């Protein structure tokens, strides 16, 4: 037997000591650093469409992971806290539509892990838990999320397989799909993309299409959670932006990537959250850092190269959306997925504030996916 195989065989034994976790790293991390540097090197654009930190990099690394965990608990940032707090209840509304029997769970972007715990707990109570495969671009987030997700549950360590990988790249999804199929064979999988993560991507529909196309087989399901809006005017867009603006912990989180990747002296007053109406499909929120010093600054990037940051130039730090019902329906049609279950919470509304809510959708693929990938399961055989 090859030495590498022998080492892999010993992993379940090593994992009996709870201090260890195994992570499969699916891509070169140095390549990721080049990607983040390229985003920060883009030309000046005072309108917020130039320099940027794309989704994934906002959460990458220890500082951002810790800052995200704090933001999720911020009383002034109710969006995430409420979405985590109400998840178990909302899950129950769609869970009877999940495939029967043992179910494997692949969580795309588990974050702090509480929602994964709710789903795993639901399966555990019925004795249906299969493999748990959390997938995240951030190794630190994986470790934190995994600990929270498995707390007080009886999932054997050998049935947990964290994967560090950027799931927005088609080649990575091909590799992930092959890995998952090797591990589970023909048994059904439920994938999840929760916490409005889809809304962080410029091409959200394209990403959903790709995830469905590359991952979903007819027997699999996909749990998608997104933020929703009933209103679609300027006032609603401003209110959506304010949700982020009001939270000191969110501001710390969103600037933590800037602190990691540049030598900028961060002034939190230079941060703005802009709310825009995106056609009839969504409200769009852009969190932007603007140079307000009156002069050109020089940014040093991770590769030690420098780039000018002129007065009024911007770095887009975060993107989010709240979808209209019509926008969401159209996205599902475009991504060629159909609903197997859904629950919508409209959220609280006040006389001067629009209603923002959360939609939890259980999706299935529209077309037959390629057949199972044969080959040994590296964690069982
Ligand atoms: C908004 S948080 C959602 C966390 C959790 N699902 C929840 O609902 O509470 C986004 C999560 O996705 C991960 N993520 C974002 N972009 C990613 C990418 N391109 N590839 C892999 N993980 C990504 C982040 O690290 C983070 O864990």
Description of the structure:
Residues 75-338 form the Histidine-specific methyltransferase SAM-dependent domain. InterPro entries: EgtD_Methyltrsf_superfamily, MeTrfase_dom, SAM-dependent_MTases_sf. By secondary structure, the chain is an alpha/beta fold. The protein folds into 2 domains: 36-61 and 233-322, no CATH class; 76-231 and 323-365, 3-Layer(aba) Sandwich (Rossmann fold). It has 13 helices and 14 strands. An 8-stranded mixed sheet has the order 1-5-4-3-6-7-14-13, with helices on both faces. Strands 2-12-9-8 form a 4-stranded mixed sheet. Strands 10-11 form a two-stranded antiparallel sheet. A hairpin with a 5-residue loop joins β10 (297-300) and β11 (306-309). It is globular. The model is unreliable at 368-381 (pLDDT under 50). The structure holds S-adenosylmethionine (SAM). The site of S-adenosylmethionine has 18 residues, from loops.
By CATH, the superfamily of the largest domain comes out as Vaccinia Virus protein VP39
Q: What's the main sheet like?
A: 8 strands, mixed
Detail the poorly predicted runs: 368-381
The helical percent reads 25-40%
| SSE order, one letter for each helix or strand | HHEHEHHHEHEHEHEHEHHEEEEEHEE
CATH overall fold name of the largest domain:
Rossmann fold
* SS elements, strand count: 14
Bound compounds, each kind once, are: S-adenosylmethionine
Assign an overall shape.
globular
Order of neighbouring strands in the sheet with most strands: 1-5-4-3-6-7-14-13
SS-derived structural category: alpha/beta
Counting structural domains, the number is 2
Q: Which range does the strand content fall in?
A: 15-25%
Give the rounded overall mean pLDDT.
91
CATH class value of the largest domain: Alpha Beta
- If you compute it from the alpha carbons, what radius of gyration comes out, rounded to the nearest whole angstrom? 21 Å
Domain Histidine-specific methyltransferase SAM-dependent: 75-338
Pfam family, one: Methyltransf_33
Organism: Streptomyces albireticuli
Protein name: Histidine-specific methyltransferase SAM-dependent domain-containing protein
